[in-house]
Amino acid sequence: MSVDIYKINPEFRDIMPQEIIDLEENATWAGESVEKRGINDLTDKKEILEEHSLCAGCPEAAALRYILAALPLPEETIIVNSTGCTSLMFPHIALHTVHSMFGNQNAVASGIKRTLDWRFPDKTKDVVVLAGDGATIDIGLDYTLQSFFRQEKITTICFDNEVYANTGGQESGSTPKGQVFKMAPKGKVFDKVPMWELAVTSGVAYSVKLTASAPKKVAKVLRESILIAREIGPTYIHLYTPCILEIGLAANEGLWEMKEQDKDRFDDFKYVSDEAADYLKKCKKEGLL
Amino acid sequence: MANLGPAHYSPYPVAFYDDLLTPPEGKALLLTEIVDEEVAMREIARVMLTSENATIFPGPQVLYAWNEEAKKKATLIKEMSEVLNAKMIPMYDYRPKYPKIDAEVEINPNHPNLTIWHNEIKACIFVGVHCHYANVALKMIRSETDCYTAAICGLSGHEDAMATIRDQHTKEMARFIEIAKEVKKELGK
After folding, report:
1. What is the complex's ipTM, to 2 decimals?
2. Are the beta carbons of B88 and A12 separated by less than 8 Å?
C-alpha cells in the first residue's frame, strides 16, 4: 500500500480537520519512521487507536494499544478478529481488519495470508489473528490448531479474559477450575485449558504466555512473534487481559490483577523452537529487534 | 428535526421498494427515470445552484493524493464547488466517531443525517466515497432528510441517490463542470 494514501490533496487542506492534518504530519507508520515506532509513541501518537468502546479501565483496551503501537509494519498488517469484546474496538482502528465468524478466525487468516503471498510475492505482509479465549480455545479450537498443524505463517494472539464476558459471564474453557461467575454459579469443574502448551504440541515455532501488565514486554513478544511468523512458521501469544467487570474489580484494579497473576497462573511461559531462536539472533544482529 | 424524506423513513434501499437499479452504461438515473448523462448533469447542476446550502461531500478516494487520478479529480472538484457555489464538507474517515461528530465540519457515513440537519443542506453531491459507504449514507439521507442527493460515481452509480451519473473520471467531471457553467449562466447565478 502506498503511504501517499495519507497525504491530503492540497485542494482540500483548508477543509480537513486539524486532527487529520496532524495525522499526515506526525504519523509514526510507514516509510523511514517504521524503525522508530514503539510503545513510547503511545503517549502522544493517536493515529492507530484514539478511542475505544470497551468498559472504563478494561485491560483489553490497554493490551490492544500496546499491540498496535508495536506492530512493525502496520500499513502492511491485516488483523483478523472474531466475535467478542475485542471486536467492539475494531471499527475504531485505522488498520486493515477482517471480522470473521465466531471461531473460524485462523481459517480466514490462513486464506488471507496465502492469497497475499501469492498476490504480493515481493512484499512483507503480516497477518495477525486477535481473538478472545472463547473464539480461540472453545469454539474455534479446531481452526486454531489446524492452522498450527498446517504451519500457516500467521501470528495468533489470544486475549484471555477467562470468561464469555459480553454475554453475561459464562465459563469458558479458559476459566480456571472453581471460578464462579454470574452465569456459572456452580463453579468451573474442569481445569483451565493450557492453550500455550497445546500450541507447542501442535507445531508452533513460538509460544508465550504472559499478562498485559508490562507494555514493553508485550511489545517485545509481539515483534518477535511477527518476525518468526514471516520466516519460520505459526506463532502463538497467550495474553491475560482480565474482565474486571466479571471478576468484580474496579476500573483502576485491572493492572494490579495482572501483576498478581504474573506470579501465579500467568507466570512466564516461553517456548522458542531452535530454528526460531537462531532466526531471532539474526534479527537482533540486523537491528530488527 | 428533519422533514420527512421521499423514502418516508423506509429502512430499505430503493431497489427494494421502487424496483430501481443502477443505470446502464452511458446513462444516468434521475429519481426513477433512466436518462441521458447530459440530462442528469444539467439537473444536478440546476438543483445545486438553486438549493439552500448546497454542499459537496468529497470522500477518501479524492481527499488523499494516493494516485494521479485522485490529484486531478481534487482540482476538478475544487473548481466544481466554485462553479456550483457549493460548500465542501469532507468524509475523511468511515470509522464511527464517539461521542459524536462535529457536524459543522465533517460527515460520517454512519450518521450522515446529522451533518445534513445541522447545516440545513438541501442539495448535495457525493464524490470519491467508496461505494459500500456511499450506499449506506445515501439510503439514510434519502430516508431521513429532505436533501436532494447526487452521486458522481467512478463505477456503476448509486440508485439510492436521487440523481446518479456513473463511470465518472476526470474527462467526464470536466464535462460536468462545463455543463454546470452553462446552467449557471442560464439561471443568471
Report:
1. 0.91
2. yes
